[in-house]
Amino acid sequence: DAGVTQSPTHLIKTRGQQVTLRCSPKSGHDTVSWYQQALGQGPQFIFQYYEEEERQRGNFPDRFSGHQFPNYSSELNVNALLLGDSALYLCASSSEWGAGLYNEQFFGPGTRLTVL
Amino acid sequence: GENVEQHPSTLSVQEGDSAVIKCTYSDSASNYFPWYKQELGKRPQLIIDIRSNVGEKKDQRIAVTLNKTAKHFSLHITETQPEDSAVYFCAASYPNDMRFGAGTRLTVKP
Q: Once rounded to an integer, what is the mean pLDDT over residues B66-86?
C-alpha cells in the first residue's frame, strides 16, 4: 500500500516562470491539502481539495492554484514565481470526516522548489 | 497567520529525561490537535493527536494533554532516547485551515 507520493523531488526555476507540482494521496484517502514549508519554519497551509473542489484556503495569493482529479490526485500550480516562493512544498492526504472536522493527515516527501 | 505559538524553540535533554513542548492556540472553534515529528530532510510524521472532546491521550512514551479553557496543549515525551532527536511541530485546526507552530528542535544527548 503506497503512501503519499509527490513529484518531482526537486525543481529549479527562475523568477517569473510557472511550476506544477503533483501529489498522489494514500490509498483510501479522498482529501488533499497542500502546505509550504520555508526553511526552519512550520508548514503553512495553502489550500485543501475535496471532491475536486477547493474547500479551504490559507493566506496565499491567487498565483497559487490547484486542481484535484477524479482519482483524488492533485496538482499545485504557482505562476509568476518569486524568490520567496523557494520552499519545500508538502502534500498531505486524509479521509473525509465531516464538515469542520479533521482526520489524521499523512504527508508526502515534499518537492523542494528553488527559485533563482 | 501564526495563531499557534510553540515553546520552546529549542530543547536539549539528557537521555532518559522527560521533554515537554507547549503550544497555545487562539480560536475556541479548534477541535483537532496533531503533533508531528520531522527529521532532517524527511516528511513530517504524525506521532499523536487529540480531539477537543478528550483531555489527555497517551501512546507508550508519548502523551498529549489539552486544556480547552486555557487554549493550550502540550506534548510529553518520557524516557527520551537519542532517536527522539528531531523537530516537533504542533498544529491546531481552524475553521478554514490547519495551522502549525514554528517547531521545537529537540536534542537528546546520550
A: 96
Q: How far apart are CA B13 and CA B110, in angstroms?
A: 9
Cell of A40: 526552519
Measured torsion, CA atoms of residues B94, A103, A53, A26, in degrees rounded to the nearest 10 = 140
Nearest to A41 by CA among B95, B100, B30: B100
Are A53 and A70 contacting, i.e. CB atoms less than 8 angstroms apart?
Answer: no
Contact B46 A57 (CB under 8 A): no
Cβ neighbours of A106 in B, within 8 Å: 46
The answer to whether the CB of B70 falls within 8 A of the CB of B81 is: no
Q: What's the full length of chain B, in residues? A: 110
Average pLDDT score, chain B: 93
Of A58, A102, A110, the CB nearest to B32: A102
